[in-house]
């Protein structure tokens, strides 16, 4: 252990300093009436200007910083909630498209050749046939 000569370690001193900071920090909880008023105002104006915040300070008996941070936190919460909702919708859409894709792939595996009614060509064979047809087309155009 590292001692500073006072009989306590650095870690203990930091713990004491942190505890004193927590004691000195006053936690302000808003009353239900204040929250209701702030929520109502937020619905009308999520980004109040300085004069609007001052008006709210007087009405709700809060500091300007408390009002400013409440709105800041509320906007952050709303953004996170909107992103979660959006992600849920996109996830559902993604699953739906994935299922449709799988269904189409299954159908493609069972497709019959329209010319002869036999089994379908594989992708490689289809590409070779397309290249062959393009080549024949080019030859015919040159004639």
UniProtKB/TrEMBL annotation:
Gene3D superfamilies: Homeodomain-like (1.10.10.60). It comes from the Eukaryota. GO terms for cellular component: nucleus. Signal peptide: none annotated. It is found in: Nucleus. Residues 1-27 are annotated as: Disordered. InterPro entries: HD, HD-Zip_IV, Homeodomain-like_sf. Its main location: nucleus. Residues 1-10 have a biased composition (Polar residues). It holds the Pfam family Homeodomain. Residues 21-81 form the Homeobox domain. One of its GO terms (molecular function) is DNA binding. Residues 23-82 bind DNA. The keyword Transcription applies. Residues 11-26 have a biased composition (Basic and acidic residues). PROSITE patterns: HOMEOBOX_2. Keywords: Coiled coil, DNA-binding, Homeobox, Nucleus, Transcription, Transcription regulation. Belongs to the HD-ZIP homeobox family. Class IV subfamily. PANTHER family: HOMEOBOX-LEUCINE ZIPPER PROTEIN HDG8 (PTHR45654:SF63), HOMEOBOX-LEUCINE ZIPPER PROTEIN MERISTEM L1 (PTHR45654). This is Homeobox domain-containing protein.
